[in-house]
Amino acid sequence: MFHPYLKNGASVTLYVLVWGALAVAIAVALALGTTLPFGDTLTVGAILSGVFCALAMLQWNVLLYARRINTNRTAWVLCNLAVGALFLACWGVASCLLLSQALPDAAVDLLLPAAPLLALVGTLTYIIVAQGYLAAIAQAEQEDAEPVIEKAAAQPAGTSAEPVETLERIATKVGQKIEITLVDDIRYIKSEGDYVMIYTEAGHFLKEQTMKYFENRLPVGQFVRIHRCYIVNVRAISRVERYDKQELMIVLTGGKKLRASVSGYRELKRILDL
User: CA–CA separation, 207 vs 197, rounded Å?
Assistant: First the structure.
């Protein structure tokens, strides 16, 4: 999933302006509370905001990965708290190192009195950025999990979509060999960015295709997209568990658990005629 604030030129410009405004705000606050000239406080604001911006770029990838691997809500909350603590610690350490180089004479005198204010600003800013990221992840999960049948139902009457050939086997190049995997042997497919990881009883392999490609070509009624990250073979499902009001878990034969979205579970129930 692409960074939500770097999708186009307008969002990039807005992203830069936000961090620039934060730098100026920090500089003004420090200028009012210290005897340092505004030029020095502006340098401090630029460093603090720049480091925060760089870490925030990494924060998106960390939260996205954490969301994929944490299927339990409690683990997800604890993971967010741990990421937040680590983020603020890295921000403080990196900022101090850069400030000690940029303003070696004034860094200590400036940072110690301003530490409570900077800690508050950093915490509030982190919470705002994290909430924006989490909202973007939740929205993407909801949009990507919409079953194909619902989109087909919205097609105007009297029109026909171009037929898509149903897959029966998948070819994968492994070294100098080409491995052939029958579709019936697939247990589930997991999204890996622009690739997918295909899991079978014999193991797993990476394929340079998108989830949408397989969603449109796997046999209807046998495979269902239960989540933005997962397509599952219904023949491999052992049971369904609910562990929260809006969270469901699909348990495969052998014990593997996959998280299902609300719309994905709705489509699964339709396929299974529940």
Answer: 6
